[in-house]
Amino acid sequence: MSSAHSLQNNSQQNQSFDSVLHTENLSVYYGDFLALDNVSMDFPRKQITALIGPSGCGKSTLIRCLNRLNDLIDTCRVKGKVIYRDKNLYGSKIDPVEVRRHIGMVFQKPNPFPKSIYENIAYGARINGIENDMDELVERSLKQVGLWDEVKDKLDSNGLSLSGGQKQRLCIARAVALKPDIILMDEPASSLDPISTSTIESLIQDLKEKYTIIIVTHNMQQATRVADYTAFFNAEESEKGNRYGYLVEYDKTEEIFNNPQEKMTKKYVSGRFG
Q1: Which of 50, 79, 148, 187 fits a disulfide with 223 by CB distance 3.0 to 4.6 angstroms?
Q2: What is the pTM (predicted TM-score) of this model?
Q3: Distance in angstroms (rounded) separating the CA atoms of residues 32 and 144
Q4: CATH classification of 3-269, choosing from 3.60.110.10, 2.170.130.20, 3.40.50.300, 3.30.10.20?
């Protein structure tokens, strides 16, 4: 293992924040192959944390561990802990479905249900046992993502008929309807045009007033625009020949980009590799 792995626990020594979620010695395997090695980090409450790094460094693997979406991959095996509300989310008595109510996910490609705009919000709420006034819930959720005025007169239209940016905001509205604590976002703007990307970024910043947000992005400029904290991951080849990811450095975003402590971080954010 690279000596860089020992650096990850030093990168937060000067940070002081209210942590809502943290990992302890988290490693992920797909079959016999290591995908993510020994990650320990804290995520601050009602802040935006960006995960950056080259392809194959484990960013998406990590974010899918945080609400147990990796459970859906048969070959996936997780070691270590993910602690939320003082409970290890990988404990034997933890219900993954309940975990995903508190820790929502927005994916890279917008994935509305093939249902009406109204039902995209209401259906997800119903199957999760929410029995609120659905009209109020749908309106409030769409207003939170700035979509209400654009769709209020066509709530019966299929969600798939919306533009790419509108679809992604609908998916975010579907997530916030469940009133999660945390929203995970895996490259939520990578398939969108610049104007839609700007809209999503503004929305993400607005949402941190109520939610903790963890975002995977390949776009370093996006990280500097939206994130309060940034974690830089790198990848290297194991003895078995596969690439695995590890955390190099984690700090306030301005420190990562303007005053990184690790040479590898400095090379990456200056565009010299990756």
Answers
A1: 50
A2: 0.91
A3: 43
A4: 3.40.50.300
